[in-house]
Each structure stands twice: as C-alpha cells, then as structure tokens.
Amino acid sequence: MSEPVAKQPSILGLSTSSAVMMVVFTLLFTGLMAGTYEATHATIAKSAEDEQLRLINDVLPPSSYDNRLLKDEVALGPTPELGLASGGHVWRARKDGKPVALVLEAVAPDGYAGAIHLVVAVQADGTVGGVRVTEHRETPGLGDYIDPKKDKSKSGPWIDQFRGKSFATIPPERWKVKKDGGEFTYRAGATISPRAVTNAVARALQYVQAHSEELYR
Amino acid sequence: MSQKLTDVAWNGLWKQNSGLVQMLGMCPILAISTSIVNGVSLGLATALVMALSNAVSSALRNFIPYEIRIPVFILIIAAIVTMLDLAMNAWTHPLYLVLGIYIPLIVTNCLVLARVEAFAAKNGVLASAVDGAAMGIGLALVLGVLGGIREFFGNGALFNGIDMVIPGTHALQILPEDYPGFLFAILPPGAFITLACLIALKNWAQARKSSVARPLDAVGCAPGAHAH
C-alpha cells in the first residue's frame, strides 16, 4: 500500500496493520483462555460441588440422610420471604424416601455492609439443624463473628446457638436478638450483623412452616 | 538486558518499591491490608501474575506495534489472570480458596500494567520476569507490614486467619483477650494513615543513610535528617 515511500507508511496502512495485529493477538489469547477453560472446567465443577457439600455438612450431618442431596434440589424463583432477589436453591434431604431436612439458601439484606448470604438447614420437625454464612462483607474484627471461621470463640461459635431451636421452643415474636427483646445473644460492639442473621433465620423458618408440603414434594 | 539482575531485584524490593515509592496499586493496598495473611496472600498472587505477564509481554515485545501496545498489554494481562485463576481453581484448589478472591482483583492493579509498559517492553524475558516478581514481592512485604500494624492495633492479634492457609495454626494474641479493639485501624482510613507512616519511615531511613554517607551534600534533600 505504501510502496513509493517505504519509510513513511500511510495512515491507512498503519491503521490496517495495527488492526490486523490487534485481531491476531485477540484471537491468540482468546484461544488460550478457551483452551484453559476446556481443560479445567470439569475439575472446577467437581470441586465447587464438593465445597457446596462440605458447607451443607456443617449444617446437616451427612449420616442423617441417604439421598444424593445436591441432585435433589428445587430451584426457587425470586423469593422475597427468603431475601432471594434473583432466586436460589433448596436441597431436600431424605432417608429411606422420608423427608429429613431442607437446606435453604437465604439472604439477610440488612447487614452492616450489604447482604449476608446464608444456608439454613431446617429439619422436618421444624428445628434448625444449623446455619452458616456463605458470603458477607461485615466489618473485620467486629461484625464478622457471624462467620465461624472469623469467630474468636472456636468452642462455641455465635452462629451455633440456632442449632436445635424451633418455633416450638422459641415463639416467632421472641426470635430476635436480646436487644430487640428476643432470646438470642450478640456480642458487644456489633448488633446489626447478628440482628440481620437472626431475623433472616426466623424468616427462613417461617417460610418452611408455610411451604414445607410443596417443598418436599 | 543492560541491567544486572540483582539491581533489577533490589529496585523492585526496595528502591522503587511499588507501595512506598511508586504509589501504584493503592486500591488493593488499602482494601486488602487488614491482616498479614490477607496482605501477603494478595502480594504473592500479584507477584506471580506480574512475573508471568512481564515475561510474556517481553517475549512478544518485537511483534507488538507501538501504537496499540497498551490494549495488547491489557489483553495479555487479562488473559494471564484468567488462565491463572482457572488453573489454580482446578489444580491447586486449597490455595485457590485462600487466594481466589484476590486473583480477579489483580487486573485492576495498575502496577501490573505499569511494569509491563515501563520495563518488560524494553528488556529481555529473564530480566522482565525478575522485575515483575521483585516488584510483586516488594508489594507483598509492604502489604504484610501494613496488615500486621493494622491487625495489631485493630484487634490486638497477629496472623488473623492463618488457620485458613495452614490448618491447625491459630492467630497470635498479643494484647490481652479483653482488648476492646480499635476499629479505626481496620477501616480504610487506618490504611491511609499507616501507609503514610511507613512512607515517612522509608524516606527518613533513606535520608539518614545518605546524610551519613555524604554528610556534606545531603542537607538539601534531607532537611529532616539529623544534622552533622
């Protein structure tokens, strides 16, 4: 294109060669990324599943059910009762075909720094099997004790006080932190994070109470 | 290839330290340096990405048209971060659980692009890899010190979260268990102020060194150093 003056390529020639090189590099690196994805995605899916299962094992002992829990799931659409703005999952644990527990995803939208994501196990008789925080941005060293990994008290993490409680032992109107006139403790300095979690667990219990028939079906 | 590798490394670790001198990558410095474990983890992940992206950019530098070098560099960095993220997730999963959340953040760190543009585009592959690694480790050191100071004042313990990296270990409680905590140190303003103190300390150390070495002409550049 610029043969007469080889030293000074024309604007058009320069643009064309730059564009061609850009396309070449884009194709090259897109190809590399696609290749890496192909080589890894099966392993990644497997470990994501393992991790999910490990998290569920924290709230529900694996010996208590005998079905393939992660395969026995209900996809929920947007469910404001559980704080799930864009939907979530419920896993159903069964033993010999009989309902054992529901493991629900729930969100407390009113944490100190945004939403707190939870999994809650609710046994067939309405008791809480356990609660775990899966995602949060609460203040490190202050409100983050809602996550047992960050909780300084390793022997009795704060979040384990829900285990074994139900609306039969604590009526819904007492299912609050003590500061709000409820039954659940919180630690000095941070009330907002435990309040958000406690209320979200209560809402999850209410949801299960109202919908357990259809959820197990 | 004109520079000696030891000089390149020393530049990255101390003389041109990315956190204290170049002031690049402030976003991760302030956001992640809440504890030693967080800070060093992000720093090491950054060092790995920088060594790789410097080496690849340097190897390709003669094929990259000058006019479009920045988009190509960004492409290289983003591709490397993506591939590293996937590879670590698949093959070094325990490590990924610790560092994973930081890896995508690295793309936003302008330090990576800055070193590719300032160093790798002009130097050989080996020197570029050393530069990237040294700059990253320099950052890791600053993040570690910063994190240590912040968690010490913030909740009176060091190595918070170490049990997530090395199972079975636990944080080192320095101050009494009932230390009420100093939230300010953990929140972003604490990062600014601690970093400012570190920078002042480094400048003081350098000014002092040069005033000791050359007592006569150091006055102009180091008014704060103690006079001879």
Helix share of residues of chain B?
Answer: 55-70%
Spatial arrangement of strands, main beta sheet of chain B: 1-2
| Count of helical regions of chain B | 11
Rg result of chain A:
25 Å
Unreliable residue runs of chain B? 217-228
Count of individual beta strands of chain B: 2
Structural class of chain A: alpha+beta
Sequence of secondary-structure elements of chain B: HHHHHHHHEHEHH
Number of helices of chain A: 2
Shape descriptor of chain A reads elongated
Portion in strands of chain B: under 5%
Largest sheet composition of chain B: 2 strands, antiparallel
The greatest inter-chain interface is formed by: A-B, 28 and 35 residues
Task: Name the average pLDDT of chain A.
Answer: 88
The total domain count of chain B is: 2
SSE run of chain A: HEEEEEH
Keywords:
heterodimer; A: 217 residues; alpha+beta; 2 domains; 5-stranded antiparallel sheet; 2 helices; B: 228 residues; mainly alpha; two-stranded antiparallel sheet; 2 strands; 2% strand; globular; disordered C terminus
Q: Can you walk through the features of this model?
A:
The complex is a heterodimer of chains A (217) and B (228). By secondary structure, chain A is an alpha+beta fold. Helices cover 34% and strands 20% of the residues of chain A. In chain A, strand 3 and strand 4 (114-123) form a beta hairpin. Helix content of chain B is 67%, strand content 2%. In chain B, helix 1 (5-15) packs parallel to helix 8, helix 3 packs across helix 4 and helix 3 packs antiparallel against helix 8. Chain A binds chain B through residues 14, 17-18, 21-22, 25-26, 29-30, 32-33, 36-37, 39-41, 43-44, 47, 51, 139-142, 149-150, 154, 189, and chain B through 34-35, 63-65, 67-68, 71-72, 75-76, 78-79, 82-83, 86-87, 89-91, 93, 97, 151, 154-155, 160-161, 163-164, 170, 180-181, 183, 186-187.
